[in-house]
Amino acid sequence: MMTFARGVSSRPLRFRLLCLFTIVFLCSVQEIFVYDTMTSRYDQEWDATIQDVLLTTASTPKEESPLNKSSTAPSTFDHHNLTEIKLSNQTNTICMESAAYPLKYTNHSRKIRSTSHFMVQEETTTYKFDQTQPISAICRFLHTVPFSKHFPHTAQQLYRCWSWWRYQQQRYANFNITFMLQWDDAIPITLKQNPFLKGFMHLMEKSLALQVISDHINVTGLHNTNIVSAHSKLDDGFLYDYVMASTEDAVALRKAAGRVFELPSVTVGCNVTNNPRITILNRRLKRHLLNWEPLYDALDSIGPVSVKYFEGKAFRDQIDIMMNTDILVSPHGAQLVSLPFLPPCASVMEIFPTGYFEPAFFGSLAASSGVSHSFVYLGVNRTAEVATGSASVWARRRTRRAGICPPVHLMKEAVKQAVAAWKQCRERHRTIEITRNRASLGQST
């Protein structure tokens, strides 16, 4: 009887365990399927963007390898010039460098966007605006947008809000405007405590007197007939790039940061140094530069070089580093969210590991900020490698975590070209300043 009882009691236990295992397995498969579906849609957006880049430059001839020619200054400076260097595969611990040649592409974000394109407008109140009351300009953050819980994608919406608020400020110049951000309570506390986002919110609160309201507050209960609201999602419903209405929005952001955090202003035309400040912005964990030391030694002969990390740094420290950088060399990563705080004439060189390639993401942020952008891809067959690297969630994670090792001699040549462009841009700024000063002197007399 004991054997019978033991056998009877064990069957339901095994059955329950089997059911539990099946449920866990199905939930995992569903999660992977949903994530893969979102990733697939995400990749389709990037593919369309990259194809746009390639089509606009299909007739561009390949340049000669920099190994066989000396670096020459470009005839004209293009803020949106992209440079690609193809390299071989490498592991996380061993640097395997190989020769390659640069190719030039046109950044997709040169397309002109109007305010109506980058911010979906909602209906204002039907009442006639009352000049005795302030206008409430409410920008709504959407936590339902894909990847919005990752802080670089959160920053996409906040940059759009900043640009939209400036537009409202110019549109209603004769009104007293109250700026509001409708910040959903569903946003994780960890995201709100991110050093960059925390500092960025402080910057907007101090420079705009921004009021942050909960998503649960009914805006019509503000007892204000002058309400203009919008949300920061693109017209196509998907966040695939950074957008600001004008590069002047980035200029205003830099000036506001200087005032709020008491940082010195940067004037390119008055910069007396002949050598640009080069910063290697490295990462401590995944996608970090393995050979940053020989790269530092090679670039030190071009200009003053510093190696920085953003992990654990406050917002003020991050933008202070950016404001004192003219040539930025960095792996692809969230640290590039602070690109708008680079000074005029600056350029960024973004490095991608083999099998991972999304130049339009931070490239569009650089273009919106008036910053030159170039990229380095560490691979030999980008189409096949990216397809393999994005074949699954696990492949994508593995590809994104790989340590990277760009060839030092080619990086040095690329930085030399960036320096030549920086000098040309600086001279133009000096000419513009001299012309303005002469004009102002003529008016005063």
How does this model look, in words?
The protein is an alpha/beta fold and 445 residues long. The chain folds into 2 domains: 54-111 and 273-433, no CATH class; 115-244, no CATH class. It has helices at 2-56, 115-118, 151-171, 189-192, 195-208, 247-260, 292-299, 315-323, 359-368, 382-389, 393-401, 408-444; strands at residues 81-85, 102-106, 120-121, 135-140, 177-183, 211-214, 227-231, 278-282, 305-309, 327-331, 347-352, 372-377. It has a 5-stranded mixed sheet with strand order 3-7-4-5-6. A 5-stranded parallel sheet has the order 9-8-10-11-12, with helices on both faces. Helix 7 crosses helix 12. Residues 1-9, 31-93 and 97-112 have low confidence and may be disordered.
